[in-house]
Amino acid sequence: MTKIFGWILRIAVLAADVYGNFANNIAAAWDAHDKIPNNGRINF
């Protein structure tokens, strides 16, 4: 039982890490995007 719980915990930590990196990348890209001058492009 402990081994299964440890395995689930490891997957949860890994998933949280991947999601955290993904969220950070989105935030960084959004931040950089806001700083880029809008050269006639639609600014989302």
Written account of the structure:
The protein is mainly alpha-helical and 44 residues long. It is 77% helix and 0% strand. It has one helix and no strands. The protein is rod-shaped, with a radius of gyration of 18 Å.
Main sheet properties: none
Task: Give the fraction of residues assigned to helices.
Answer: over 70%
- The CA-CA distance between the termini, in Å, is 48 Å
Counting H and I runs of at least 4 residues, what is the number of helices? Answer: 1
Rg, rounded, reads: 18 Å
Q: Tell me, briefly, the overall form.
A: rod-shaped
Please provide a brief summary of the model.
With 44 residues, the protein is mostly helical. The protein contains one helix and no strands. The termini are far apart.
Top keywords for this entry?
0% strand; 44 residues; mainly alpha
Reconstruct the topology from this structure.
Layout: H1 2-35
